[in-house]
Amino acid sequence: MRILGINAVFHDPAAALVIDGRTVAAAEEERFSRRKHGKRPVPFSAWEMPELSAAWCLKQAGLTPADLDAVAYSFDPDLAAPADSLGLNDPWDHLRQEYARRAPSFLAEALPGLDPSIVRFVPHHMAHAASAGIAGPHRDTAVLVLDGRGESASHLSGRYHGDQLEVLAAQRLPHSLGLVYEELTEHLGFLRSSDEYKVMALASYGKPRFLPELRQWVHSDGKGGFAAHGVEWAALAPARRPGTDWTQDHADLAASAQAVLEETLLDLTRWLHAEAGGRELTMAGGVALNCVANSRIAAEGPYERVWVQPAAGDAGTALGAALHLAAAHDESPRPMPGADLGRGWSDEEIEALLKDAAVPYERPADIAEEVAEALAADGIVAWFQGRSEYGPRALGHRSLLAHPGRAENLDRLNRVKGREEFRPVAPMVAERRAAEIFDGPVPSPYMLFVHDVAREWRDRIPAVVHVDGTARIQTVDPGSEPLVARMLDAFERRTGLPVVVNTSLNTAGRPMVDSPRDALECFGSSPVDLLAIGPFAVRRGKAFA
């Protein structure tokens, strides 16, 4: 079967294509439209389809919309309830539900030739669950889904038996760990449903002194569910206006919310293990992008192995919905091959674009060696290689790279990207060396856990060490990422360090670079020393001489 998965109803619209159980392509609409997160998660935008990413997925496989056997839409309006009956203050939510019901006709208009009768609604949390339990490497695994909201719930706990999901618990709205964290994000002056990762970073600067009060509102119920609603944030710390400086009260509030989230997640995983057993846990939903909480689950929870979907947010439901439908039709879907499921360009296509842009470039004997040389000389490198990543993490395909041994490179990169000064950058490290430098789950190819940095290494790689002594690492396996591994080896030969700074190739408020044109625009507007684009090198000195 040829199944197109679609996420559209809330935020991070995306498309994915699964053919005969095999994941062929997956991409987020923001990478094409250049609108961060694709759209805002308001009811008035629920009609918008990821038409650009969907059209690309089909083109990647040489298909037309008429060739599809099914379309899996990751929301089932028949499971939704009126917002006021769910305790939500969302007077226009009925419009979101109506737009979801009309999704088949919207999709047929966006993809001419598509038969609207082949569109199938997949429950939102079932799509999240499949993106972890089916797309992940483990079979017969427990699965935990937590996000802001689905149709009428905010959570699912269950277990996969092969490709079939047994649901063991679900938390009905308005209780939602994701919505509570979103409320805090807004209270702290950041953009709700967008900047939650900033709250996680800010938490490292605080102490959880508001934790006892927060436990009144947020806690597990001992039955596989939880309470998480009605937090009186202003009673704990004043709201921060966007653009103003944060205070210690704000950092302490972030630390307290992070702590109560981690406590609740640990309780949920222990309950799930008691009910379902097993050694593996897979996770999805926007809350699963909280890598600090993931690390506590891995370290203190009952499971031997924890795997998190790299596109754990709503974008991942496009893939999950398609895999869920494939499993329902006995397609025996296979695990996703990696996160590099987006667009890619041939060397010839890249060179043609460089010539059209009249940009001076060269083709060194080995781009990996050339980049290692630039990094060793303390240059900042824009790294554009292979197919783009599915999900919010730069994993060695659309990255900004720098020397980890110079502490000032953290501030330098945050200035390049226009980010807040408290935001950390991440290390990529050769998988064979990771365990001697970082204490935490290894391998960690998708940058979804934080690791304690060994004390003897903290002074050697200060740029990637967060204020609390941790780092969110990406381990690099030469079997799956040979070019990145070769660059790391070349850098280690020059510096003695098997680690390179890796952050996403974008600037603040912009989606990650996706196309060669995006890469040239980012290079032209940022103080980056070298653009490594395919096998070609573009140098700032020559390009702007």
UniProtKB/TrEMBL annotation:
Residues 372-540 form the Carbamoyltransferase C-terminal domain. Gene3D superfamilies: 3.30.420.40, Carbamoyltransferase, C-terminal domain. The keyword Lyase does not apply. Residues 2-72, 119-323 form the Carbamoyltransferase domain. One of its GO terms (molecular function) is transferase activity. Keywords: Transferase. InterPro entries: ATPase_NBD (IPR043129), Carbam_trans_C (IPR031730), Carbam_trans_C_sf (IPR038152), Carbtransf_dom (IPR003696), DHBP_synth_RibB-like_a/b_dom (IPR017945), NodU/CmcH_Carbamoyltrnsfr (IPR051338). Coiled coil: none annotated. This is Carbamoyltransferase. The lineage of its organism: Bacteria, Bacillati, Actinomycetota, Actinomycetes, Kitasatosporales.
